[in-house]
Amino acid sequence: MSLRSSVARLLKQRAGSTLRAQRRPAHSVALIGAPFSRGQKKGGVDHGPGAIREAGLASKLSRMGTIKKSAKIGYLAYVQEVSVILKHHLTSCQVYDLGDLSFTQVPNDELYNNLVKYPRSVGLANQVLADTVNGAVAAGHSCVTIGGDHSLALGSISGHTRHYPHLCVIWVDAHADINTPLTSLSGNLHGQPVSFLLRELQDKVPQLPGFSWLKPCLSQSDIVYIGLRDVDPAEHYILKKYGIQYFSMRDIDRLGIQKVMERTFDHLLGRGQRPIHLSFDIDAFDPTLAPSTGTPVLGGLTYREGMYISEEIHNTGLLSALDLVEVNPLLGVSQEEVTATTNLAVDVIATCFGQTREGAHIVFDDLPTPSSPDESDSEEQVRI
Length: 384
Fold this sequence. Notes:
It is an enzyme of class 3 (hydrolase). By secondary structure, the chain is of the alpha/beta class. It has a single domain (3-383), classed as Arginase, Chain A. The chain has 13 helices and 12 strands. It has helices at 3-11, 48-54, 57-63, 75-87, 119-138, 153-163, 193-197, 233-241, 249-255, 257-269, 303-316, 335-352, 377-383; strands spanning 13-15, 18-20, 28-34, 67-69, 94-100, 142-147, 168-172, 223-228, 245-248, 276-281, 319-325, 362-364. Strands 5-3-6-11-10-7-8-9 form an 8-stranded parallel sheet, sandwiched between helices. Strands 1-2 form a two-stranded antiparallel ribbon. The termini are far apart.
C-alpha cells in the first residue's frame, strides 16, 4: 500500500455516527471466478462468473483511478492526455484476474440426513475457495469472489479470516442463510452458510462429510444483515435468540438507507476499525431490477439503495473482500433481463471500489483559464 493510502487510513475520523473517509482508488483487486452451483437446485448459476466478466467488470475496474488535471495545459491537450492514460490503462487500480476455479466433481455425493444436498461437493469446493481467497488477501489484494451460489461464502469468509481474524461481515441479501442442516426445509446449502461460520451455533451444527476443514470464525456481533424479507421460522428464532443485528426491508422503509448504514457501522466499527467482508446476493435487489436469479423476492432494494450501501462501504476505506453471488443467466426470460442483472452486479462491485454517481472520476487541482485569442481585437472588430 502506498504512503498516501497509509496516511489516509490514519487520518480517517468519525463524522456524526458514520465513518467517513476521503475517497481513494483501490490499489489492487484480485478477481476470483467461482462457477459453483451445487449449493442449490437450479442450473445456470455456475455461468454467473462468465456473464459478469462479459459485462465488462475487469475493464471497468481497470479504468477507475484518479487522473489529475493540470491547469497549465489547454483543454484539448488535457483530453488527449486522458485518452492516452485510458488507452494504456495507466491507472491506480491494478486488476488481477485469477480466472475461474476448477471444482472437482464428487461421485456418490449422497444426502446428509436424507435432506442436505451435495455436502461433499460444497465442502470441497469451499475448501479450494478458502485457500485461494486467503492467498489473494495475504498477497495484499482486495479480493472479489464472483459466484456461483451463496454457499461459496463458507469458503470466501473462512479464507479471509485466516489473514484477518478480527474482520466483520456485511451480508446483503433477501435471505438470512442461517438455517442449520437440522432446520433447513429445502436441504440446499446456499441457505445455510452463516450457521457454519458462527461460533455461537457450533453445538447446533452437525459435522457434514466434506466439512472437516471448516471451523467457526465469526461471533454474532461480527455480522450485520441488510435487506432481509424472506426469513424462515428457525432463522428468525436464531436471529432473535443470539441477538444478531439485522435490517429488514421494513427497517429500511422505516429508517431510510442512510440511517441503516450509520447503525451498521456503529455496530461493527464502533469499537475500532477492522476489515470489512461484504457478501452481496444479487437477490437483495427487487426482482424488477435483478430478475436473473434463483430465489427472487418482491419488495427488494432499489438501485439507489444498493448503490448507497456500496458507496458507504467504499467510503470507510476498510473493504477487504467482496462476494457477488446468485447471478443466474439461464433464468432470465430474455437477454434484456440477463443484461440488466449482470450490469447491476458490475455496478455493485465497481461502486464498492470507487465508482461514483457524482460525476467523472477526475480530480481538478485548479480550473483552466482562457488562452489568448487567435485574432487581435482590431481584426475581430473588422470581421464583425
